[in-house]
Amino acid sequence: MSFIPLLPGSLSGPPAERSDAARNRERLLGAARELIAECGPDALTMDRLAERAGVGKGTVFRRFGSRAGLMMTLLSDSEAAFQARFMFGPPPLGPGAPGLERLIAFGAERIAYVMEHGDLARAAESSAHSRYEVPAVMLWQRHIEHLLREAGMDADPLLMAMSLAATLDPDRLLHAVRVQGLAPERLTDSWRELVTRVVRGR
Amino acid sequence: MSFIPLLPGSLSGPPAERSDAARNRERLLGAARELIAECGPDALTMDRLAERAGVGKGTVFRRFGSRAGLMMTLLSDSEAAFQARFMFGPPPLGPGAPGLERLIAFGAERIAYVMEHGDLARAAESSAHSRYEVPAVMLWQRHIEHLLREAGMDADPLLMAMSLAATLDPDRLLHAVRVQGLAPERLTDSWRELVTRVVRGR
DNA sequence: GGACTAAACGGACCGCAGTCCGATTATTAT
DNA sequence: ATAATAATCGGACTGCGGTCCGTTTAGTCC
Questions:
Q1: Which residue of A91, B8, B23, B72 shows the fewest CB atoms closer than 10 Å?
Q2: Model pTM?
Q3: What is the rounded distance in angstroms from the CA atom of residue A172 to the CA atom of residue B172?
Q4: Which residues of chain B have pLDDT under 70?
Q5: Chain B neighbors of A196, CB-CB under 8 A
């Protein structure tokens, strides 16, 4: 988790990080994972986190900016893995399969992802102003748009991608499964049906 | 806004409302509309509202339950008017037109509605746990589902309605228009395209 | 009118996310 | 080693939504 900088002056890039700052970040991430494992993401408050990690509250916010930022950091590993799979992995999720098949696979994988990391994802998006500025969310949407074009979608792929992305919103998916009691497979089936109809068109 | 109860005992229904309670509710609604007219819905805090209306903070919450509840109350008039139009009004929005045409009209009207009352609607849905328990939202979704069935949708109309409703989420629509700078007409066009493809199917 | 009761009242209080600024400490140059 | 400097630290503070409970008051029954 630490590395020796090749260049002392560190040309290009943030001007390095002080050792205590790095130590505190690790402490905070560890404490956050502990608390989430114990009581779930919703019970993680910034005060409790600071106390558990043995640092001041200001430190938490300087490190992660906000609660949502912390959650995004916690998600970033699995998030990056997921991104790698649909961008560079084997088909049908990755490149090599027709657009429609990749779309179907994408939805299925995303639903599975939300079932696993949903609470975290929801917490990461619950930033007051911008639920749609989250980089990962924007990337997904552009990916869907790309696949739509590849599948021959002619009419406003950007907005179609927006609509399809709305369907995969973690909040909605979790509500459907946890509150409405729908089976995840049913969501997957419905997604397949939806994108098929949208792509095949009138 | 007030009426004389026909039966003193008030069979069936809440056990009447005390006069001071009614007076305070009117005061609060008036003050809320003032504040919103002055600074917009986001600047309306429950403390300010209580102060402006000349009542205690506890009174505000007993009256409306929560900030979201207050916003829903403020919306209820225009909300009811909208509902009446798509349930009993003239076609193509109301009954009498084919399902697909009604769906298209519904989306267009909803987009227009959000452009007008969007901030309020967003505030009304921003209750932590349940953005989807709002009665109006549930009604819309069931209405979409009904229209889908009427238009001959065979595959899981409930989930298809859920996906389509997600497209019409106020938060998303406002973000598309205000942040992304998309023209509302483009949203309407895309909606028409979307529902047409979904209904006409594979 | 006067007593009784249930409801409404109000504002102190809580936990939360996020901000601010004086004190502290790691780092670099001398 | 020492001083200078810039980043980090910590916790008091703010504003918010929401809760609680002792006090007040409207409606009712005699």
A1: B8
A2: 0.88
A3: 13
A4: 1-15, 128, 202
A5: 202
Rounded-to-integer distance, Cα A196 and Cα B169, Å: 23
Q: What is the pLDDT of residue A1?
A: 37
pLDDT recorded at residue A97: 95
Output the pLDDT for position A133: 86
| Nucleotide closest to A61 measured between CA and C1' | C18
Average pLDDT over residues A88-108: 96
Residues of chain A neighbouring B172 (CB-CB closer than 8 A): 132, 162, 166
A14 confidence band (pLDDT: 50, 70, 90)? low
A194 vs B: CB within 8 A = yes
User: What's the maximum distance between 2 C-alpha atoms anywhere in chain B?
Assistant: 61
Which own/partner pairs from A72-81 qualify as long-range (CB within 8 Å, at least 24 positions apart)?
A72/A124, A72/A134, A72/A136, A73/A29, A74/A29, A74/A32, A74/A33, A74/A36, A74/A120, A74/A124, A75/A117, A75/A120, A75/A121, A75/A124, A75/A136, A78/A113, A78/A116, A78/A117, A79/A136
Is residue A185 very low, low, confident or very high in pLDDT (cuts 50, 70, 90)?
very high
The whole-number pLDDT of residue B13 equals 56
Q: How far is the CA of B19 from the C1' of C6 (A)?
A: 14
Mean pLDDT of chain A: 89
Size of interface A-B (CB pairs under 8 A): 78
CB-contacted nucleotides of strand C (7 Å): 7-13, 15-21, 25-28
Full DSSP string of B74-98: HHHHHHHHHHHHHHHS-TTTSBTB-
B-chain residues within 8 Å CB-CB of A175? 131-132
Q: Do A189 and B131 touch (CB under 8 A)?
A: no
Question: In chain A, which residue's Cα lies nearest the Cα of B166?
Answer: A166
Show the tokens assigned to A192.
Answer: 């397949």
What is the reported pLDDT for B15? 67
Q: Minimal CA–CA distance to B140: which of B116, B98, B120, B168?
A: B168
pLDDT attached to residue A202: 59
Determine contact, residues B162/B103, Cβ cutoff 8 Å.
no
